[in-house]
Amino acid sequence: MLPASNSKDQRIPTILAFALLPLSGFATDIYIPSLPSMGNSLRATSLQVQLTLTLFLVSYGVSQLFLGSLLDAYGRYKMSFISLLVFIVASVLIAIIPNLYVIYAMRIIQGITVAIIVIAKRAYFVDVYEGKQLQHYLSMFTIIWSAGPIVAPFLGGYFQHYFGWQSNFYFLAGLAAVIAVLEYFYSGETIRHRTEFNLKTIAGLYVEMIRTTTFSLGILMLCFAYSMVIMYNMTGPFIIEHHFKLTPVIAGYCSLILGLAWMLGGFVGRALINRPFFSKLLVNVVLQLIVVGLMILSSYFLSNLYTMVFFAFLIHVGAGFTYNNYFAYCLGRFPKNAGMSGGLTGGMVYVILSLLTYLVVAAIPAKDMAHLSYSYLVFIACSLIVMLLLLKLNRQPAVTDS
User: Fold this and answer.
1) Between 123 and 323, whose confidence is greater?
2) Which residues contact 98 (CB under 8 A, 6 or more apart)?
3) What does each C-alpha distance from 394 to 106, 196, 318, 389 come to in angstroms?
4) d(CA 346, CA 175)
């Protein structure tokens, strides 16, 4: 098979690359409406079931810290293709072996394989495109990725209602299998600059990236923004199905609405791409703080599904806006080490948010709208602190990033 970089027509490989970007979202969100039912089926507590999501996020994040450098050294295609096959097997095993500890192990494997796939496909665009075309595609990443959080829980609600929680993982296996067949026939290797896999060199590059102030603080902003989504995914279905006594289908529709909010935030981010960087992000965080304050007040006087989703929608729009702006910036900062910068960005974000969200969910259990609003407040307050620090650093003459 000829490398894709030798082909004049990149349309099909590009479409396949975009199709795989939402895989992490599908792997985390497809079974969100099934969390309460999984707990009942496996005789597990809510925290034990939520741990299946946390383990995926931890393995997905930790893997990205070193897998990016491997992909920069040995290429993208073979590792991502093999990972797709392993992901299929892990998905099937989760469905056919209803044992909590087997599920834990398979979710860790899924996190590692999805990390390889997503990093490889992010790097694909840096390999193949450049200039304004590359910037155009980078700005589309979070919007395309949003297809996962939008579509996955919507489908998952119906899968749970009609076929049970196992059907979600059969679907993941089937989806990955279809894409794997197309990848085999149409995709190939695209790496242009291989870098030697040297731990000392890799550590030095990571240190250089992290010491870049706006890059490292941007990672924190990405973390707090996406933590709001993951926190809702871990708690929302329990509030809807246990507190409001509604069905998994309704939980799926609510996740669909909030996924649209995240995508809308990405579109707003693209529309305002030429506005002053730090100013627009500070305004966004302040607006989120106002909304969460109103949500807290409302939870004591008018607590129902509609008000909860309304306020959550506004907060998720802001989160999507933040993520869109900082993701494009962080990923495009080091084009000669696209795999490593993408791996470090995604890895740090997922490691931090997986631990942070699990701690917040454990400290503020999924009971009602009030608890959800307090959880949002934690992440928004952290975002505000980082934004104030960014503004302070940006006023210093030594800081030139924007």
Assistant:
1) 323
2) 41, 42, 166
3) 44, 35, 22, 8
4) 23
Distance CA 237, CA 174 (A): 25
In 3D space, the residue among 93, 115, 173 whose CA is nearest the CA of residue 343 turns out to be 115
Give the three-class secondary structure for 257. Answer: helix
DSSP one-letter string for 377-389: HHHHHHHHHHHHH
User: DSSP per residue over 10-75, as a string?
Assistant: -HHHHHHHHHHTTHHHHHHHTTGGGHHHHHHHHT--HHHHHHHHHHHHHHHHHHHHHHHHHHHHH-
Of the two residues 144 and 113, the one the predictor is more confident about is 113
Q: 7-394 domain in CATH 1.10.274.10?
A: no
Q: What would you report as the CA-atom Rg of the chain, rounded to the nearest whole angstrom? A: 20
Examine the pLDDT at 402 and tell me if it is beyond 60. no
Between CA 101 and CA 320 the distance in angstroms is 33
pTM, two decimals, is 0.78
Are 272 and 341 contacting, i.e. CB atoms less than 8 angstroms apart?
Answer: no
Contact predicate 60/112, CB 8 Å: yes
Task: Give the integer Cα–Cα distance in Å for 291 and 299.
Answer: 12
DSSP state at residue 275: S
According to DSSP, residue 239 is labeled: I
Q: Which residue, 350, 98, 372, 38, is CA-closest to 222?
A: 350
Tell me the domain boundaries of the chain: 7-394
How many Å apart are CA 211 and CA 205, to the nearest integer?
10
Whole-angstrom CA distances from 357 to 219, 229, 401 are 16, 10, 30
Q: For residues 350 and 61, give the distance between their C-alpha atoms in angstroms, rounded to a whole number.
A: 4
pLDDT tens per residue, range 256-313: 899 889 889 988 987 887 888 788 989 999 999 999 999 999 999 898 999 999 999 9
Contact predicate 74/197, CB 8 Å: yes
